[in-house]
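User: Structure please.
Assistant: Input sequence and predicted structure:
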Amino acid sequence: RAMPGPVAVSLSRQAVALTLANRPAEAEQAVAAATRSIHDGSAGIEGRQAIDVAFNLALAGATDSPVLDMLASLAEDELRTHRWRRRGWSKPRSTYTLVQLAERAAAAGLIAPLGLYDILGELLAESGVSAA
């Protein structure tokens, strides 16, 4: 499965900026362009970028659940494949980042049950964070 390119990141940020500037028509165009780039599957995004894009699109008013679900799936695949060790981050930073990913995914409207939350829970447990 191809992953959306960095263009989705900049377009999603632009959509948020246009939304905050009260320019809804232009924000919708930026959301549509970001969505197209995700569906096109051009060059890959890494790490937390899939969830950052989902978060930004949700802030900009995106309601395309399949795109948000696709982004969640991309983030889940990344976490499952690399077990968040690829960059050699220290445990505290990894733990903090994993919690941020969960928060952003929830804020983007991604609702459990979702494999993304399962892998985030597994990784947090591996780092010594308990759910209690």
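The chain is about 70% helix and 0% strand.
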